[in-house]
Amino acid sequence: MPRRRQLETNVPWVQLSTTAADWKRADPKLLGTMLSQLHLIRAFEEKVLELAGEGLVHGPAHSSIGQEGGAVGSIVGMRSADGVSGSHRGHHQFLAKALTHVSGGEIDPRELVSGEVRTVLQRTLAEILGLAQGYCRGRGGSMHLQWFEAGALGTNAIVGGGAPFAAGNAFAQKRAGTSDVTVNYFGDGASQIGSILETMNLAAAWELPVGFFIENNLYGVSTHVSEITKDTRLSIRGQGFSVPGWRVDGMDPLAVHLAMEEAIEHMRAGNGPVVVEAEVYRFFHQNGPYPGSAFGYRSKDEEREWRERDPLTKVAREMIALGLITDAEVERVRADAQAAMNDVAAELIEADPDKPGRNRIRPELWPETDFVNVGVRGDASELDGLTVAETESHAGAWRDVKFVDAVAQTMERRMEQDERIIVLGEDVHRLSGGTNGATKGLAKRWPERVLGTPISENAFAGLGGGAALDGRLRPVVEFMYPDFMWVAADQVFNQIGKARHMFGGDSAMPLVLRTKVAMGSGYGSQHLMDPAGIFATSPGWRIVAPSSAADYVGLMNAALALEDPVLVIEHVDLYAKADRVPEGDLDYILPPGRAAVRRSGADVTVVSYLSMVDHSLEAIEQTGIDGELIDLRWLDRASIDWDTIGESVRKTNAVLIVEQGSEGTSYGGWLADEIQRRFFDYLDQPVQRVTGQEASPSISKVLERAAIARTEEVVAGLERVRAGFGGTN
């Protein structure tokens, strides 16, 4: 018989409950502050549901009524510099953090509503109503609440989507040498999400001061937690990653507070992440003013039992028993909170003159419609004052270099000059510069700034986003292959790409995402895509695609100076290319809006990028067609050089867009549409395109070549243009 030994995890996991002695020992000011915040948040949520019932809340109203104890108990002892991020049901978390910030962590229930408290209530309500005076200027609404000054990093509409950003904020806090912490709030449903588990693992491996606070309210919309996981004690998740856990009654705010005190002490001491699970209960349905029993998935008996454990009643009852407050004074707290919310709402709404007996939002409070696109990206003014150099006109000495060495040398120079830059990715710290040598020498010089990650693109991409949003770091994230972006699609597109605009337009996102196109290398369908078309049709991203080492230097330098997320696309065909860069320090930039004319011509405008620039030049020479070749360099709609393209189109009256990758995810599709709309009057034939086939490249060398475009396909495209002119040059 084999020998067996029971294994145990190496970190504690405890259930914490309060005793009568805990309530007696508690600071009366702490209890009064908790009671105050609970009533302010409850009155706030009731007003939101009332306004939603009047049709004045555009979109869902995910109330936290019943769950306030978890947020208040866990946040009331935090510093303003501590960060919190929440979920779509995050009003209570945001308000608890904002109220703690403006009050210094102390609110007297007998003097409930100061001017600053009232401002928090009004600006938060204004945001939920979509008004200009809201914290995110009306763009965030109910599900995207952010106020950096208070440490409210942003609530999040994607289930589990906020965890990687929270880890990024904690990463920045740790690197800055602070003892501050970050806590991410999510629910029972999110406890099964990959981003949560990936982030928990990464945070544990790197000992980040981030807390994973699970509000286990038993239901994901209408699905009970027992239907989605075998062990409904959700804090067990931490045990698999050596993350200590606390499980606590979330209807007891003091129990939550005591558990969180222990958890925060653990994090501030540099011991890494924690998990805290609070058992709470939302008194209403997923959104709106109706109980879950109205939809048949909960019983009225169950709801009644939980309502009898209301955290507001719990704190009031304990304070009354201790002689700290009277029944009448508790009623006064409730009345004061409701009166404050009535006053706040009255300043935002008015009687509708066209609908007697109905209210409307005051028209003058809406954002101006011309604000709609402001802040999708920044204005690039941060590049002002930097040295702009067009390498084709460089008159000085040159230095021979392989393209991939120019990649590494550019990063080395920037890391010398900017200590905020960190590099994240799989194997970037090993193999003499990652899998292709693009980070050669960097880890040896800065081992603490070149960080090899677990294979978890969702976690480390989002961590980079959170670190960038903090403002103290400038992350460079590497995806080994572009196709891996789909693993991290939420973080790349919903989080990083949208953060600046979604949170009001002022939140800088200085992140660079590097990746390489590897068509022709035999890696098959899941490694070889060109990501340009996907990113160009997704908001927020800037895109650069260099075709030469000298251009790479200027484009990467610009990317690392911008306050926007920038995708830097490289191509493996260029890595080994013998190339050159200007002699001297590699400090010049090639700013957005600068394409390069690689060849002048009169017959057709050929537009391309990356390695296809060289293939296009070869094809032009082979056909004898007098093509004008434009190397785009910047690909996103905000950065593309329409002046250079337009000048060429007005001269040639024909356009051929050349790219290598699959037709379905083509960059040229939207570009052709834009060119035809802008320059239709100058075109003598439709815009022509060269792309790969519909299929993604296969492993078979023959089928891979058939799936992608190279010189021969550009030749065929040029001949189509020639035929479109009736066969003449």
UniProtKB/TrEMBL annotation:
Q: Which residues form the Transketolase-like pyrimidine-binding domain?
A: 401-577
One Pfam family matching this protein: Transketolase_C
The record's listing under InterPro entries reads: DH_E1, THDP-binding, Transketo_C/PFOR_II, Transketolase-like_Pyr-bd, Transketolase_C
What are the record keywords, sorted? Answer: Oxidoreductase, Thiamine pyrophosphate, Tricarboxylic acid cycle
The source's domain of life comes to Bacteria
Identify the cofactor(s). thiamine diphosphate
Q: What is this protein called?
A: dihydrolipoyllysine-residue succinyltransferase
